[in-house]
User: Fold this.
Amino acid sequence: MKIRSIALAFFSLAATALYAAESPAVGSTAPDFSLPDVNGKTQSLSQYKGKYVVLEWFNPECPFVKKHYGSGNMQKLQGEYTGKGVVWLTIDSNAAGAEGNLSPEQAQKVMKDWNTKQTALLLDPDGKAGRSYNARNTPHMFVINPDGKVIYEGAIDSKATPNPNDIASSTNYVKVALDESMSGKPVSNANTRPYGCSVKYK
Amino acid sequence: MGAIKRLFSPILLLGTLLFAANAAVAQVYQGTQLVQADTVANVNAVVPGEPFLVGVRLKMAPGWHTYWRYPGDAGIPTEIKWQLPPSWRAGEIQWPVPLKLTEPGDIQIYGYQNEVLLIQQITPPKNISEAAANLSAKINWLVCERICIPGDATVNLTLPVASTNTAANSDLFARFQKQLPRSPGANFSASWKKEASGLLLTVSGPDLSRFPSVEFFPSPKESVAVGHPRLETRAWDQFTFRIPLDPSNRTIDSLPGLIVFGNSPNDPDRSAWDVSAGPQITSGDNRSSLREVMRFLIFGFIGGFILNLMPCVLPVISLKIFGFVQQAGQSRARIFRSGLAFIGGIFVWFIGLALVLVALKSAGREITWAFQFTNAYFVLLMSTVVLVFALNLFGLFEISLPQWLSRGAIASGSGHGDVGSFFQGVFATILATPCTAPFLGTALGFAFTQSATIILLMFAAIAAGMSAPYFLLSAQPAWLKFLPRPGTWMVRVKELMGFLLIATLLFLLSVLGAQRGVSALIWASGFLLVVSIVCWIKGQFLVPSATFRARVIAFVVMIALLLSGGGYFIGEKFQGASAVATGNALSNGWEKFTPDRLAAEIRQGHPVFIDFTAEWCITCKFNESTVLETDAVRGAFSQRQIVKLKADWTNGDPAITKMLKQFGRPGVPLYVLYAGGSAQPYVFPELLTKNIVLEKLETIIHTMAYQP
Assistant:
């Protein structure tokens, strides 16, 4: 009995180690986190239970992020869905000293300059939240349903280029996932290959 | 000021144009030159109709990298768009084996540092009116260090058009061509298994065992997200990788990619095998219903029957008919027994072959139908057997069975006619094997993916089909009565048959010549001459009427001749004669098939026709001369700009064996058409007609030269 439980514990440990580098699977419970926003206020995922939550990994220096903010595409999306009651959390997991790392003041400035429309921009310089989601890219998108389950993970849209001119002709996967799920349909394309710069972890 | 500017601008433009040719374009970021791009060709001039290579060279600043075709967790692959004159074609990018780089947070990317040359084949048209060709390429890349900067450039290459050219930039091309992934060797095997969390890839190859670092670099198609491949187990030459997949991708049952091996990860001398060469054909469920098995057994039976009518069995048929003529006057029971013996010979050969195949299949070798004919020694052995039979028919010597065998035969009251019939059956079927009749191909293709039991059943069905007519004739001798009565004419027919066998011998020798070259053919013929002399000695001196002493001397001389002749002509000369590369000279727009070439053409959306053929395949030759090489079909091919690839299986090229297997075919001929785009390959019947081919070609939309 004892040996069995030790073996089981060992096995699950090994399994965790084996799959640690994977993003939370679509359909599984989204890992909780608590992070300070640009005003120093702590925000956690669990406080938004019962609502749709979008997670967006962010790096203002990254050309792929600039593609979606420079064109106004990201702000439009943020505005549209926060207007429908969706919580939009932008997360910066870049380490201190690395490209894209933001102090609270710098983050406030970026939000103002770019006229962003998210619920909150959270700072994760330790990369703890980023690693628990295995967020690899900026932008790397997750959509979480009111039950706290991941319903979408991957790219923001279907054209993996840094060129803003490609936005018009691409399919926005986040929009599709939200629209489908909010109208009670299963998400048709719940998993795509994210594209962008790598998250600059510590 | 404005006027001056207007005056100078044409001059400036001209200057820019002049300098644009072959000039490098630099990407500068905050005062640092990150990437320098230019393009080079491996020739100093374009010869119309002759493909050549161009390379886009990217030189990266120290510490910066650009990406492979699959960038990994971040980044995007470098893109090259060639702007070519009309009807020029650019091939797929040939990506060197990338580096695997790991960033903090276990982010793995695949890319290049310092310098990379991305090579593409350019095929110019046969007629070029201009004196020089201007080729330009628009390149887009993402270059990253700690930060990522997108870059782009348009590079130009101007080459004169000439009737001859010489190599250029050889060192540069050689350096990067050395880094290209290759097709795996013959002893390499890869298998995929689906697990709950992803895929398991097991590869084995003896060559891999000596490398400390063996990795799998996946190259999934766009939109498929894969986890990091992990080497799970390594046992001598067998490696198992686990590749996690997201739940939405669980329908995928294999991934393209590279097996990369070297003395350490990112070893500068690392090499790679492309385990995805050729189109991805997923292996289906191998279990099959009883009904399906029955259907294929019936196909096997029909195929076996048709084997009697195939061109390459024709000479043997005459032998068999001759056998029945000889028996026509004898008792019913005797004829039936003789028929059964013949059938027994057919069965023993097929079942024996099945057992050998089952054994080899379980040993993991690539074995296919008619594989014997890809082996020069087998062809030589067959030639010898055919010659000996021919000389026997000419009456040079008589076949007398060993004492114990004939005694046993007499004891059983059957005489050696039955034993002879038995071996005739064996001989007939040996010659029948390289002819895959239409039904047989399908049935055997099916059988090769099956268990040992089904393979054995399948071969038994073929044997039954082939022997059916002889069974009927020997069981119903009434039908034999229609055959003419024996007489002196039989001797003439017998001798005439000998000439048919000599014709078969010529065919076999032509195969040998194609496989090993003229000198090997001469040495083999030398050996055949020795065999003829041995046969003559047997007919003259090793006869029952000779004294025992004379017989012993004759026997010793025969053995000595065979050994010395065989040792000299075969053991020394034949073996030493170098093999020629390929039997079929490529002409009339045919190009050599390689899996890489096919994959490249498909990815570019070009329509491709593949002719799987071999020197020893008469059905193939027949199709080629009556259909493929006719003006109508040739015209249709060139009008639709279909790439014609010839896969010559004369020497049993393992890459071609693998392709045949992917199509579920155990042998040649096989004709396949990729209609372009993502269309599934269309497989033609084994016996072609002009109409079949032309009608199918009609369905291909005439596409203009496509630029990736």
